[in-house]
Amino acid sequence: MLEDLNTAGMVRNRWLARSISDAGWAELARMVGYKQQWAGGQVMIADRWFASSKTCSVCGAVAASLLLSQRAFVCAVCGFEADRDLNAAANLAVWGEQHDAQIRDP
């Protein structure tokens, strides 16, 4: 499972530009793709507009905004608290399970 990110927009952030450029995300995506194909698997790509960071992984409520400086996710509806990246990973795992049946070969 990969997430389609707007890296061109992220590079415009002067504090993160060097780290994002050095990360080589396109190369990582390429390697994951060919290794999955080699192993007989598939790579699913979540849409960049899927609000994985802003969605509560417990109740599904979507926060209106979440600043990059906010490293913890706190749900205003149910009060769930988690690291924002762990919350996003849980949401992407659920997204992958929901869309797996549509992509899997018969």
Protein architecture, described:
This protein is mainly alpha-helical. It has two domains: 1-47, no CATH class; 50-106, no CATH class. The chain is 42% helix and 9% strand. The chain contains four helices and four strands; from the N terminus they run E-H-H-H-E-E-E-H. This is RNA-guided endonuclease InsQ/TnpB family protein. It comes from Hamadaea flava. InterPro entries: Cas12f1-like_TNB. One of its GO terms (molecular function) is endonuclease activity.
Whole-angstrom Rg: 16 Å
Percent helix, as a range, is 40-55%
Low-pLDDT residue intervals, each spanning 5 or more residues:
none
Largest pleated sheet = 2 strands, parallel
Q: How many beta-strand elements?
A: 4
- Overall residue-averaged pLDDT value: 86
Number of helices: 4
Broad shape:
flat
The structural domain count equals: 2
SSE blueprint:
Blueprint: E1 2-3, H1 7-10, H2 17-23, H3 25-38, E2 45-46, E3 72-74, E4 81-83, H4 84-103
Parallel strand pairs: 1-2
Antiparallel strand pairs: 3-4
State the main characteristics.
two-stranded parallel sheet; hydrolase; 106 residues; 2 domains; 4 helices; 42% helix; endonuclease activity; flat; two-stranded antiparallel ribbon; mainly alpha
Summed up, what is this model?
With 106 residues, the protein is mainly alpha-helical.
